Amino acid sequence: MTEKYTESIYPRVSPSALTFENEQENDYRLKHVEDVKYELERHSNIRKSLRKRYSNLNSSLDCSNYALNTVSCVSGVASVSLLSTVALIQVYRAVVLTTLLYGSETWVTYSSHIRLLERLHQRCLRTILQIHWSDLVTNVEVLEQAEIPSIEALIAKSQLRWAGHVFRMKDHRLPKIALYGEIRSGHRYRGAPKKRYKDCLKKTFTACNIDHQNWSDYAADRSAWRLISSKGVTLFEETRRDTIKNKRSRRKARAASAVSQDPAFSCRLCSRACRSRIGLFSHERSCRQRGHSLPS
Q1: Partners of 31 in beta bridges
Q2: Helix, strand, coil percentages for the chain (3-state, nearest 5)
Q3: DSSP three-state, residue 108
Q4: Cα 189 to chain center, whole Å?
């Protein structure tokens, strides 16, 4: 163990002293940190880690877009046409997603974390597929074109795989002790309890149509658990996409019924009804930018 690369992290209060015995050198104190890059953070909170990954990946995307645009200006070739779309998506899955979701097997995720990751996921896919916001392509359609699941489904798949792996471990292994262990003494601080990894895992089981009380019976067999997990994640992704589509269709139906009561604000280019005059003005400007013209 090297002193330079050895750090310590504690759940809440760090002890006053912690030394490491080294036969060649004197005792030294481990450096205490609040979080470890791409690994741990206090209270099982991944907010800082996700923010770091989000900013780093955004910077990488900006730099890569600048480099590709520079090459395209010199060679006269479109930037994305340097590689096929299939190859770009394969590189994205192999490099970007593996780095972005590193350690997601043990994450305790909230809806805010999922929204942040999904937003970055959509930005990368839309850049690869050359989809602009003015094309009016939904997020579900982007995933279908790229033939790639959502971030939430990828996290669920990794957590199910890790849960089965931990269950098949020996009883003396630390991951299994941490998963099945209980606190012997102590008290909880005032306020709502923190979300635990067990709670997150139970929610994943329910979403993937897996019995959370008898899941260990299936996890004992590795091949069977892999098949059940794959089917469960596929069902979860299909249900998620259908829910989003139905929610969007209901929202569009309500908007259409509200606009139909006052059809005075109708676009002269595409005949789309708007709710107000300023909305009609903005919509017609967007239509002109997309190349629409007045019907003859």
Answers
A1: 7
A2: 60, 5, 35
A3: coil
A4: 30
